[in-house]
C-alpha cells in the first residue's frame, strides 16, 4: 500500500513539474516537460494497474490468478515509444530553431496576435458605439427639452402679446372715454356761460312789479 502511494505521489509530482515546464517558451523546457509528463503518466498507470503478480507468461504449471495484468504494461511500453518519438521531434525542432534564430524560444504567432487585436478592436468599437448611442440619446433629449422650452417661450410671448393688445385696446377706450367726457364737460360749461349771459324772464317780470 505504501509502495502504491509512493508511485502515485511520484507520478503526480512528475506530472505537475512537466505541466509547469510545458508552459514555458524555450523548447528545451518544453522537451523536458513532455518527458516528465510521459514518465508521470506511466507511473500513474502502473500504480493503478492492480496488485503485483507473476509475469504474464503462459507455461506449464502457471496459474493465471497469480499473474499481473498485462494490459497496463502494454500501455506503458506503447507510451514509452510514443514519448521517445515526441522527444526526438522536439529535439529536432529545438535544434532547428537554434540554427535559425540563435535561441530556442517559441515566438508569438502573428495570427494569434491579429486575433487578439481584432478582439480588442471589436471591444473598443462596441464601447465607442455604446458611448456614441448614449451621447446621441442625451443630445436628442437636450434638443427635445430645448424645443419644449422654445415652445413654452413662444406661447408665453403670444400670451404676452395678447395681453399687451388688450391693454392697448383698454387704454384706447379709456382715452376715448376721457376725451368724450372732457368734450361733454366743455359743452356743459359753455351752455352754463350762455345761460348766465342771457336775461332771466322771471327777473324781468318781477323787476317790473318792483
Q: Terminal Cα separation, in Å?
A: 173 Å
The chain-level mean pLDDT equals 80
Helix content, binned percent: over 70%
Strand content: under 5%
Shape: rod-shaped
For the secondary structure, the number of strands is 0
Structural class: mainly alpha
Using the CA coordinates, give the radius of gyration. 58 Å
Low-confidence stretches: none
Number of helices: 5
Question: Can you put this structure into words, describing what you see?
Answer:
The radius of gyration is 58 Å and the shape is rod-shaped. The chain has 210 residues and is mainly α. The protein has 5 helices and no strands.
Top keywords for this entry?
210 residues, mainly alpha, 5 helices, 81% helix, 0% strand, rod-shaped
Amino acid at each position: 500500500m505504501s509502495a502504491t502511494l509512493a508511485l502515485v505521489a511520484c507520478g503526480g509530482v512528475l506530472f505537475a513539474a512537466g505541466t509547469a515546464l510545458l508552459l514555458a517558451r524555450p523548447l528545451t523546457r518544453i522537451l523536458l516537460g513532455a518527458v516528465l509528463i510521459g514518465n508521470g503518466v506511466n507511473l500513474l498507470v502502473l500504480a493503478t494497474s492492480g496488485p503485483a503478480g507473476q509475469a504474464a507468461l503462459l507455461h506449464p504449471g502457471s496459474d493465471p490468478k497469480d499473474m499481473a495484468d498485462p494490459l497496463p504494461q502494454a500501455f506503458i511500453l506503447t507510451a514509452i515509444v510514443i514519448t521517445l518519438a515526441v522527444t526526438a521531434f522536439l529535439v529536432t525542432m529545438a535544434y532547428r530553431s537554434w540554427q535559425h534564430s540563435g535561441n530556442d524560444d517559441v515566438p508569438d504567432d502573428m495570427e494569434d496576435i491579429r486575433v487578439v487585436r481584432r478582439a480588442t478592436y471589436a471591444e473598443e468599437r462596441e464601447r465607442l458605439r455604446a458611448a456614441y448611442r448614449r451621447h446621441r440619446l442625451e443630445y436628442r433629449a437636450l434638443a427635445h427639452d430645448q424645443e419644449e422650452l422654445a415652445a413654452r417661450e413662444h406661447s408665453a410671448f403670444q400670451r404676452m402679446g395678447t395681453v399687451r393688445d388688450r391693454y392697448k385696446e383698454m387704454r384706447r377706450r379709456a382715452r376715448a372715454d376721457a376725451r368724450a367726457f372732457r368734450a361733454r364737460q366743455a359743452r356743459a360749461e359753455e351752455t352754463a356761460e350762455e345761460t348766465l349771459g342771457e336775461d332771466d324772464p322771471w327777473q324781468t317780470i318781477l323787476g317790473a312789479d318792483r
